[in-house]
Amino acid sequence: MTLTVLIAGLPGSMGHEVAGACLRRGYHVAPISLSGTSTHTVQIKPEPNKPTSATNPTQDVTLLPSNTDTTEAQLRTYLDSLTGPLIVVDYTHPSAVNANAELYAKMQLPFVMGTTGGDRDKLMQDTLNAGTYAVIAANMCKQIVALQTVLENMSTQFPGAFSGYTLKVTESHQSTKADTSGTAKEMVKYFNGLTSTNYAIEDVIKLREQTVQESFGVPSEHLNGHAFHTYDLESPTVSFQFQHNVCGRRTYAEGTVDAVGFLLGRMENGGGGGGKGEEATSSSGGGGKRVFDMIDVLKSGGMR
């Protein structure tokens, strides 16, 4: 039976990228999507940024307003019509994170949460309490997550190794990104451990003006879809710089679909698996871990 992926976040750019990645992997994309407040139809295709053709056909998806009684009823009707598994992928807005997660928990919908922001502690606790299968991660780019893991290990094994250094964090994303990068927030924690300081999230420099972003090195053709991060560590005599720059959204979409495949495998096998979040085990029983992060996905070795 083929997996169906329901995308929450169309008609957003990440929604289109994830839809394309799902279609390229051979997954079905649900003909309905959770969106904002309006109901209309959008078209998705395997290669979102290429012209429609016989090899790049379009598929209609009807957008449903999130968190209404009517939408919930429509979702239940659609779920009843399926013969195979379904996983939700969420790339909506920070303000929708918790309400959407509550809906997934209520309906026992497994999900991959790529949206950053919201009350992350509540998100995790609600998901654990419901026993819902989920991958929750602030960054779906596999290589960046690997770098994060290395720096987290450094901060644990060598705390204070950069004592006496000052930290400056600069991140640039498309102007429509509402919150501070979730990746930057995570990295600040690790660098604080290495520097024995308390660099505040509020001090992260967010670049959203296009002229400033171009001066930061963002190519003009990627101003509407990029993630450039620079972490500067400086002492009076030595400086270090860590940097990861991403143009476009495809790497996040491909990592998201890796997470979808990983979650499907865990659902079929009843949870299980080690990884960073071993404590993230369903409080409702079931005998296996159900809430994972991208480090779990990396450790599984099942990426494409």
Layout of helices and strands:
Layout: E1 4-8, H1 13-25, E2 28-29, E3 32-35, E4 41-44, E5 59-65, H2 69-81, E6 86-90, H3 97-107, E7 111-113, H4 120-130, E8 134-136, H5 142-157, E9 166-173, H6 182-195, E10 205-207, H7 210-215, E11 226-234, E12 239-247, H8 250-268, E13 291-292, H9 294-300
Helix pairs in contact: 1-8, 3-4, 5-6
Q: What's this entry about, in short?
A:
With 304 residues, this protein is of the alpha/beta class. The protein has 9 helices and 13 strands. Helix 6 links the parallel strand 9 (166-173) and strand 10 (205-207).
Describe this structure in words.
By secondary structure, the protein is α/β, with parallel strands linked by helices. It folds into 2 domains: 4-132 and 251-300, NAD(P)-binding Rossmann-like Domain (Rossmann fold), CATH 3.40.50; 142-248, 2-Layer Sandwich (Dihydrodipicolinate Reductase, domain 2). The chain is 36% helix and 21% strand. It has helices at 13-25, 69-81, 97-107, 120-130, 142-157, 182-195, 210-215, 250-268, 294-300, and strands at 4-8, 28-29, 32-35, 41-44, 59-65, 86-90, 111-113, 134-136, 166-173, 205-207, 226-234, 239-247, 291-292. The strands form 3 sheets. It has a 6-stranded parallel beta sheet with strand order 2-1-6-7-8-13, with helices on both faces. The chain is globular, with a radius of gyration of 20 Å.
